[in-house]
């Protein structure tokens, strides 16, 4: 859950379409608003490698999962973690399908696993929900895959520029600014990652939009 001012299904900007007169004669500029995002402590939780789906049994054939996914409280990036027999891990890329914050269908191909090595790969897009996971054939049947979420938080607007002004954790300003990814075309490509790991404390972020 992200608390913010909204109008209908879209962030409300009272200045949208308005112009501001500058002190240079005849020169106008677009009006902008300050947009405040609040992420309550119950949703700003630490990354969890098996929160979405635990223990998918892989195979020497392609594995497709279409059900049993736990919905995310807020839009986060997706992770995949291998467990079991390291020697059965193949350098394959899992494909994740789901929904973004606008309930639009999105797809992401995660980075490849390291052959014969157990570990975690991390996606970049912000998923509100996972609906399908496709795992290519492994080198053996001894690998389990967990699907979870990472430290990246989805933003509710498409940015052309990084317009983040201030970020606070539990009302204390973050000394190091978060990493903001921007995508003016696709909502799921707009994300924020704080410098330090999320730890269940309130997050407040202020953007110009």
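^ structure tokens above, recovered residues below v
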């Amino acid at each position: 859950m992200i608390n913010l001012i909204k109008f209908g299904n879209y962030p409300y900007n009272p200045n949208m379409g308005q112009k501001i007169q500058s002190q240079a004669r005849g020169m106008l500029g677009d009006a902008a608003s300050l947009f405040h995002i609040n992420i309550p402590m119950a949703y700003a939780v630490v990354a969890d490698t098996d929160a979405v789906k635990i223990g998918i049994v892989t195979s020497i054939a392609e594995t497709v999962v279409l059900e049993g996914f736990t919905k995310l409280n807020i839009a986060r990036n997706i992770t995949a973690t291998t467990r079991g027999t390291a020697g059965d891990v193949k350098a394959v890329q899992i494909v994740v399908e789901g929904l973004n914050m606008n309930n639009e269908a999105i797809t992401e191909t995660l980075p490849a696993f390291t052959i014969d090595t157990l570990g975690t790969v991390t996606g970049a897009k912000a998923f509100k929900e996972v609906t399908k996971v496709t795992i290519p054939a492994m080198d053996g049947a001894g690998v389990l895959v967990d699907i979870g979420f990472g430290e990246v938080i989805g933003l509710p607007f498409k940015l052309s520029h990084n317009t983040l002004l201030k970020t606070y954790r539990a009302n204390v300003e973050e000394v190091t600014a978060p990493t903001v990814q921007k995508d003016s075309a696709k909502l799921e490509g707009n994300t924020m990652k704080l410098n330090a790991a999320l730890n269940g404390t309130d997050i407040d972020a202020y953007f110009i939009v």
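The longest strand covers residues 143-154.
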